[in-house]
User: What shape does this take?
Amino acid sequence: MDKFKEIRPIVLGLAIRDNKLLVSEGFDKVKNSVFYRCLGGGIEFLEKSSDALKREFLEEINVNVIVRDFLGVSENIFSYNGKNAHELVLFYLIDISDDDFKDEYEVIDDHGICTAKWIDIDEFKNGSKVLYPKEVFKYI
Assistant: This one.
């Protein structure tokens, strides 16, 4: 699937601890801006969204998550690095066990290696840091 030519179903996990949200950092070269996004990824054909979420966390940060509540779904149309994209995003509340808790995680995904870290939710709400997709604000 070409995520810049088709509608892509994805699932994102909202891990919240002590008013902090686990997010990975991204950078849009065209907009010259840093942004943050919850972890997750594409849902494969015949894969349940909750199973996709577990698989993505295991692949990206080597953590088994506990999928809690389904929070909702949104449609996200955006541009990234000058390319248009269209996603249907399913949101779940998730837990990470104390045994797997770290202040930062190395994320390995399609774009290479980056860092995921816990950022205070108030930094997103007051606009000092950018969080995508905007619909996530309904759930934090």
